[in-house]
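FYI - complex with nicotinamide-adenine-dinucleotide, inputs then prediction.
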Amino acid sequence: MKIAVVRESHPGEQRVALVPESCEKLIGAGFNVAIESGAGAGAGHDDAAYRAVDAQIETDPQALVRSADILLKVNCPTNDPGRPEVDWIRPGTVVVASLMPLRHPPAMDALAKRGALAFSTDAIPRTTRAQAMDTLSSMSSISGYKGVLLAAVELPKYLPMLSSAAGTVFPASVFVIGAAVAGLQAIATAKRLGAMVTATDVRPEVKEQVESVGARYVGIELAEDASAGGGYAAELSPEDQQRQRELLIDEVARSDVVITTALIGGVFAPKIITREMVRSMRPGSIIVDLAADGGGNCEVSVPGETVDLNGVRIMAPVNLAATMPEHASLLFSRNLTQFISTFSDEGVFEVDLEDEIQAGCLITKDAEVVHERTRDALARENAP
Ligand code: NAD
């Protein structure tokens, strides 16, 4: 089978779906691999590096996509008039990418109508067997790490305690809201930089994980369970939201840095930090809203921008993983390669919908959106 990789064309996107190391593995497993010229440049891989592992380089993306049996991408294939990748896909082509189907139901509909067999790596079940294919974890971890670095650069203070001839300065306090993959990496990174770290979540099992990476845990006893299954959180009841707000008022006010990563069902961001809470912070404090791609956890956040409110800066970076393209691409590429290799034999990818991983992340098949939550989201969008 022929695997095609095209250049990612979303603004600011520097990642590539396959790095040369992965091409070599897939070619060794019997696939033909073809890459659009320049696709790896943003991640540090020129065409020569791909040629060196026997990948073909193609200059015409349309011809490349049309000839593919499997199209691997970081983001959803584009549907722009200047680059209509979706229109180039042949019916029956296997598409594997981080499609974010619940955030973009109409794009899934377009892929379905084109007859693509589309798998979304961010919908892969969070099981031990699927861990090595989990692009969401790889990218969230980068985002947690980078979010703390952004805060450290912007904060007008040291993060660690430091003693010098001029006396001692005390460590900055960092508060992390949402402690799954991004949050735990943010905690660990802030601890490594010497900050005092506190964290909260709504899933009670997280307390132990927070403490295991060296942070203090604070949380409310929930009146209603906030689990949405699969380790994901559901929206809090209005009463629990109010009790969480009461807890957060003091924690946010005393923090130099607040890092937010909370998502509901892994997709949308609940508003947790109110404008009033931001006003209670000392000037110079920083909020890094890592849930900006899902709409943001702070009422003041503007996704993609930094807002200043009374000297508190609220940063809401989007697609943060793309700002570390070399390692983001390496990890993404290894995740995709694991997915393809697990279900392949002698260069042929085998569709097996009895398999819980494939069944969990299959979004479109036979010209239909088959992923239940995406189908529901599409129906809601199309409702009059
Ligand atoms: P996520 O991005 O969906 O959510 C981030 C965190 O925000 C979660 O911990 C969630 O509980 C929390 N949250 C939601 N609402 C909140 C609120 N109002 N206040 C505070 N916190 C709130 O999480 P994720 O990183 O995608 O991980 C989802 C689940 O998958 C977790 O249980 C994680 O441990 C699990 N996981 C399992 C594997 C595996 O076994 N292969 C791999 C990665 C993640």
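Residues 126-128, 130-131, 134, 136-137, 140, 177-183, 200-203, 206, 231-233, 236, 261-264, 266, 270, 272 surround nicotinamide-adenine-dinucleotide (CB under 6 Å). The mean pLDDT is 96.
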